[in-house]
Design brief:
By secondary structure, the protein is of the alpha+beta class. It is built from five helices and 14 strands.
């Protein structure tokens, strides 16, 4: 595995990954983070200087657990992940806009996109680390944070299921127009990531492509402690 995260991301089979995004709306990435890097990120959890805010999920009825938003500048690993994944996902995002009859809207680099967020007053960083203990869960939701948002986000598993925790599966629910919702239960091994839509995706129908809305969450953790890393590409108000 290359030492540089950018090289690892560039070496992925993006043609196949983008095809899966088109067909299913989400895709699992092979492990981009090794065990040492995952532990390094977990270790930041107790260093308050890394974070701009801490959210007690129960207080806001989001679920049971805690998450922390990293402040700027981001730790190097997180910055590399954000910058490395964005360009390929921007290509897919613009292709999806084309399927829906819209024009391309996402620039080639993360810096250009964040400039657009900042013009709209969205200047707070959004990557976050989440911690769930036994009994913890996350209700279905979307991470929008303002009028400008990127249509994809990523979640990384930082520790090992069935070893460090049980339960806590990732949930992705698709609300189809005039039909019952469809749910996906997705498990991730340590270091793996899931790419999924922030708000909606295009689906082919009899009259062309239409939007279906998606929400995501986490099922109840049965034992142990579950850590995950969320990479959101837009900044927040």
């Amino acid at each position: 595995m290359p030492d540089n995260l950018a090289e690892r991301a560039a070496g992925l089979d993006w043609q196949t990954l983008q095809q899966s995004l088109d067909e299913h709306g989400y895709v699992k990435l092979p492990a981009l983070l090794n065990q040492s890097e995952c532990q390094k990120i977990i270790d930041t959890y107790e260093v308050q200087d890394h974070f701009r805010s801490t959210i007690d999920m129960a207080r806001y009825r989001f679920g049971i657990g805690e998450y922390k938003y990293y402040g700027a500048p981001l730790p190097t690993l997180l910055q590399q992940l954000r910058e490395s994944l964005y360009p390929q996902l921007a290509q897919t995002a613009n292709r999806w806009l084309g399927l829906l009859g819209d024009t391309a809207a996402y620039p080639a680099t993360l810096t250009e996109f964040l400039d657009r967020c900042h013009v709209e007053g969205q200047t707070r960083s959004t990557p976050l680390i989440l911690k769930y203990e036994a009994g913890g869960y996350n209700c279905l939701h979307q991470d929008l944070y303002g009028s400008v948002f990127f249509p994809f986000q990523a979640v990384f598993a930082l520790n090992q299921r069935e070893q460090d925790y049980t339960g806590g599966e990732f949930l992705l629910v698709e609300q189809r127009p005039r039909a019952q919702s469809r749910g996906h239960v997705i498990t991730l091994e340590q270091g793996e990531a899931l790419i999924f839509p922030t708000q909606h995706r295009p689906v082919s129908g009899t009259r062309g492509y239409y939007r279906t809305t998606l929400r995501h969450g986490v099922s109840t953790v049965q034992s142990g402690i579950r850590f995950s890393l969320g990479i959101i590409f837009h900044d927040a108000k």
